Known about the structure:
The chain contains eleven helices and eleven strands. Residues 321-335 have low confidence and may be disordered. It has helices at 11-22, 51-54, 74-97, 138-156, 180-189, 208-219, 238-249, 259-268, 274-277, 285-289, 299-315, and strands at residues 2-6, 26-31, 39-41, 59-62, 104-108, 163-169, 171-173, 202-203, 205-207, 226-230, 236-237. It starts with a strand and ends in a 20-residue tail after the last helix. The strands form three sheets. Strands 3-2-1-4-5-6-10 form a seven-stranded parallel beta sheet, sandwiched between helices. Helix 1 (11-22) links the parallel strand 1 and strand 2. This is TIGR01777 family oxidoreductase. Residues 273-305 form the DUF1731 domain. InterPro entries: DUF1731, Epimerase_deHydtase, NAD(P)-bd_dom_sf, SDR39U1.
Amino acid sequence: MKIVIPGGTGQVGAVLNRALSGAGHEVVVLTRRPSREGELHWDGEVLGPWAEAIDGSDIVINLAGRSVSCRYTAPNLRAMMDSRVHSTRVVGEAISCAARPPRVWLQMSTATVYAHRFDAPHDEATGVIGGGEPDVPDYWAYSVEIAKAWERAQEEADTPHTRKVALRSAMVMSPDRGGVFDVLLRLARLGLGGPVAGGRQYVSWIHDRDFVRAVEFLVDRPDLTGPVNIAAPEPLPHRAFMRALRSAWGVPVGLPATRWMAEIGAFALRSDTELLLKSRRVVPGRLLDEGFVFEYARWPEAAGDLVRRVRQGRLHGVRPGGAIASLSRSPRGGA
């Protein structure tokens, strides 16, 4: 199959590209800075020659959007909003104009759309959309507005022959350098992997192999549309999450950090504390209801596998890659 991945040069794009290319599919990545075979230039804002790649493709997986690993200043938040909404709209235009549109459009979204919550998990049916929580920073609500606008841009696209799914993804854990697991493991190895601000806040996550398998599952299910939570079924408090990561690497202790210490660390890393402090207790209701079985449902086992792959990569002088998935090679067709 031919698969087009706008914004596919980041960590999640690399995971998918390795898996899909390894399974024998033709993968085309749309990027602002093409540097290798299989990459095409686009600006994420207006139609251009890149749209020809979508015409006749089987699947589009849009991952485009400014990285959230930055300071949440007003200009950066606006850039997050614009990059997500504009790129989604122009992907929708390309699909709408295609003589042979793809049969499915998987659109990246985020579990951040749900409210900061400790008492109950969020699934797609009963989860509470965030934005009105008391006692949280005002700008957290803007992150929710970004997620809502992102999904709305896909919903409003006029693509009657293309099935649309919004991937409300938790953090994708892979051993790639620069990814979220790499950052967390580095903190743990330095002895800094203790609980932050008490560690009650929930962490939602998904192992990279299960992320690829969930994409495969959604591609092969023509009856599934709309938002789908892409997260392991057992989110856990930050304290327990970091304890399991330390155990997987063999680090006995991790220094705890107060909220103000986290603020200082985030400033030094040019990131933001929302990524650490917001309680994301998200569960994959629709995937489980439809029979999807996770290979890594629990974090201790997932962390153990990721640590093994990191160590294996260092032993051989390479950084280990992601999963190899085999998407079904069913014929194209409108859905």
